Amino acid sequence: TPAAQTNRLSSFGHIDWQQTLDDICTDILPHLGKGQVADYIPALASANPKAFGIAFSTIEGTTYTAGDWNTAFSIQSISKVFMLSVALAEEGEKLWRRVGREPSGSSFNSIVQLEREHGRPRNPFINAGALVVTDTVISHCGDEAGIDRLLAFLRESSGDQAIVVDEKIARSEAAYGDRNRALAYFMKSFGILREDVPITLETYFRQCAIEMSVANLSKAGLYLAAEGLCPISNRAVANDAHTNRVNAIMMLCGHYDRSGDFAYRVGLAGKSGVGGGIIAIIPGVGCVAVWSPPLNDAGNSYAGTLALEWFSHRTGVNLF
Ligand code: DON
Q1: 9-315 CATH, one of 3.40.720.10, 3.40.710.10, 1.20.1640.10, 3.40.630.30
Q2: Which residue puts its alpha carbon closest to atom 1 of ligand 1?
Q3: For a pLDDT cut of 90, what percent of the chain falls above it?
């Protein structure tokens, strides 16, 4: 049985979570629209640059929301966190033979390090590393079942059976996916990828195109704050040791070559996606998710990062 999670929620009994979210929603208004909406595919470029949503779920299963909390958006690279949990459950520590756990200091789709490091990506959150993770899940689940395994995981951990892939975005990812194709075939040439590359790519494009709201994401991330136990389904969806390690990797690698800046400003384990979403984990307390489409130059939500910085400092949940 997993170690009983230290419940740190009671030390924040004085915090009015709803008021905190409402205040952030008001204070963020002058910052909405700063940054650049991802435009590498048309479907993302049409996102409303003024949209903003925030949700906070506690490990006891209560969810607080504000702004555009119920709008589903493309989770993009946030999917890499959940796929990593699935891969660790299936493959265990052997996964690290084919992907590292060090910050890359490079952009999310960089290829240069791969040649120097024999095709083994630095970490599971850059695209190359995520492709290794997806390839691993396919090895265990079968070709078509990789995406189904992830969807089942997200539906259970968020309690929303309606979570699906936006097929239009998935098709667009494939149409503009030559960099990812290059990364995948390059790794295959080193023997780092095992499965059929087109199937791994297709699964990766589809996982990026999963649509969720901040409310769903804040619930789905709760197992990472509760040592693998999902308070929504009341089941262990991951192993306690793995969840702590996924958090460690999020802290060091969750924002690409801006991970140090995120750690400095927010002080929480977090993962961003180019759809403008970010999740952040507060162990023993809960999970907070934000969404604002315009990105900074590292591909992380501009207003989303600012909102998390405020959330962390105003409530005192900063880990340090
Ligand atoms: O692989 C890509 O290029 C995108 N579909 C997803 C990358 C992503 O979200 C990187 N994030 N900040």
Answers
A1: 3.40.710.10
A2: 127
A3: 95
